[in-house]
Amino acid sequence: MKNYTRNTLAGTFISAFLVACGGGSSGESGGSSSGTPGTTLPPTTTATITRTGLSGCVAKQLEGTATDQGLAIARVSLLQVVEQLPEATETVLAGGKGVVVRLDITAPKSGVVMPKAKLLIGHDGEVACTEIAFSSASGTAPVAVDRQTMASSLKAVIPAAEIREGLTYMILVDGETPSTKTAADRLFRVGKLNVTDALEEEVIIMPLTFQGETGSAASEADIKSLMSRTLPVSDITVTKNADISLAALKVSDATLTDGVYYFPESKLNDALVELNNQCLSLIGTGLPTQSAPHCVGVWPSNIVFGTPSNRTLGKAFTGGYSMMVASFTTTDDPGATGPYGSHWLTQGALNFLHEYGHVLGLHHAACGVTGIVDAGLYADGRLGDRAGYDAGREFYFLGSASNGFADIMSYCGKGWHSDKGYRKIIDYKLNGIPVTDGPTG
Predict the structure, then answer these.
(1) pTM for the model
(2) Tell me: the pLDDT tens digits for 190-206?
(3) How far is the C-alpha of 240 from the C-alpha of 426, rounded, in Å?
(4) Which domains does the chain have, with CATH numbers?
């Protein structure tokens, strides 16, 4: 039970109302039917509704008689690489990593002015409350939610330092415009979010040399940025090790064509095992795989595993220490101006992320693959009905199959992690999993 205090001209009294956590409304009305504070007529009475959150936050809305313009909170979502819903019990945020809160308000007709809104966040056991204003590129409220873009949405950014255990929130829309109590309730949300500790990741790039050529990877800064934008980790260290050679790769086992050595895929498995042994010599044995440094072997362009028309671009131990990928020198296509054309990440970056997903405990998503599939991902290997968000490029996209997107762990479409995969990585980083199979492509 929470209380709101109403101050009227006639006197002061206290009335009780229920607070629905994670997206419900407070007050006597409940539900999410349309209604909003009006602005056409001045109020005939004035009162103050005091909202108390689940921590130290307090906010106020003005109450009075006014014209109801039918505005309503239609949807609230959280964008942290993937889209999650604050009211969903499975939602979990990675600590120490910023979150964009998307707020969708709709009107029953076009031309209704977009109301002001604010987000108040606090933490269990703390008095401090931070107020963040929502912003929107649109001056009017839409009549329906546009899931394809954020052009008609409001958004607020919660800084990384605030994403920690005990996080609570309140959303207050148009609180300074007098309204009926029922309408005010419909533009108020309150809840608590599940947040993990901040997660760390350490990567060691190990360039491979073969017949006078050396594998190459994107810069440490670019790889760090790529991982920060696509994984639930906030503290990332990337270093490059000295060049290494692998005894498993013998010229006699390859077919030489136009300066390129074509190895059977089985030799990639052998090479990964040897690389893994060198990795363990470097980092030490006995470390839990979920918290140990991970080694990434990068082979040079004069090596192909497979054939010219059917080549393998990477291999990893699922839930293990090591992976190998073909050389890649860039992570992003600077010419991409949005998420709905060709992928803004390079093929090399996508290969890296796919194999790194294996290292972080994920099997393949069930699209375009054979063999073991991950039952914890979407059954069609896609992203469900959820969106994705690349904070580095500020690209928001609806990850539907019709938009060409698929799980990064599949062999279909434009890859991005699904919300299910994102949470599975968090679970792996916190709890680990047993390694039950050999190298996976």
Answers:
(1) 0.87
(2) 999 999 999 999 999 99
(3) 25
(4) 2-197 (2.70.50), 199-440 (3.40.390)
